[in-house]
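A.,

Following up on our hallway conversation. Structure tokens first:
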């Protein structure tokens, strides 16, 4: 009986926590099957709510202890409704100097909310497409990591900036 009460409390607490996320405008994940191939592009279609307010953009990802690197390189491309494209190569720290994975989570899966862009105003009306691709390299090797292990889900998030 005690264990069921604890589980019920945790479930209700997590629902309240998630439902109180008033800054969230868009927040979607897509699963990565087994290994993330270097040619596999994760794509998100986004319809921004307005063209006047500024928003913060994030790449979210979930990884397991099978992720063996201290950092992560991503190529993130944003396609605008009228044909403009912005492409960025980004590096994120994934582990501390001792090798302990960063991120939140009590289980073997860590969740990371990684800054992409801040104070973005979606001036063009229509759908935007965000494409995310891994671009990992090993030290001393020319070719990239073909199949990246340990990444389970890739997400994209748009949120209203917090007011101070």
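Then the amino acids I'd put at each of the 164 positions:
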């Amino acid at each position: 009986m005690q264990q069921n009460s604890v589980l019920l409390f945790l479930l209700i607490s997590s629902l309240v926590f998630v439902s109180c996320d008033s800054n969230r405008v868009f927040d979607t994940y897509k699963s990565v099957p087994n290994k993330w191939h270097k040619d596999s592009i994760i794509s998100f279609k986004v319809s921004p709510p307005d063209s006047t307010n500024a928003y913060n953009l994030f790449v979210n990802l979930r990884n397991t202890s099978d992720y063996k690197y201290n950092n992560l390189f991503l190529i993130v491309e944003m396609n605008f409704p009228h044909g403009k494209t912005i492409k960025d190569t980004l590096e994120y720290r994934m582990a501390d100097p001792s090798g302990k994975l960063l991120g939140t989570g009590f289980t073997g899966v860590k969740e990371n909310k990684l800054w992409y862009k801040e104070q973005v105003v979606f001036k063009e009306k229509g759908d935007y497409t965000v494409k995310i691709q891994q671009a990992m390299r090993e030290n001393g090797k020319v070719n990239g990591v073909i199949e990246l292990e340990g990444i389970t889900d890739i997400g994209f998030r748009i949120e209203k900036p917090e007011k101070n």
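The chain has one domain: 24-159. Curious whether your intuition agrees with the design.

B.
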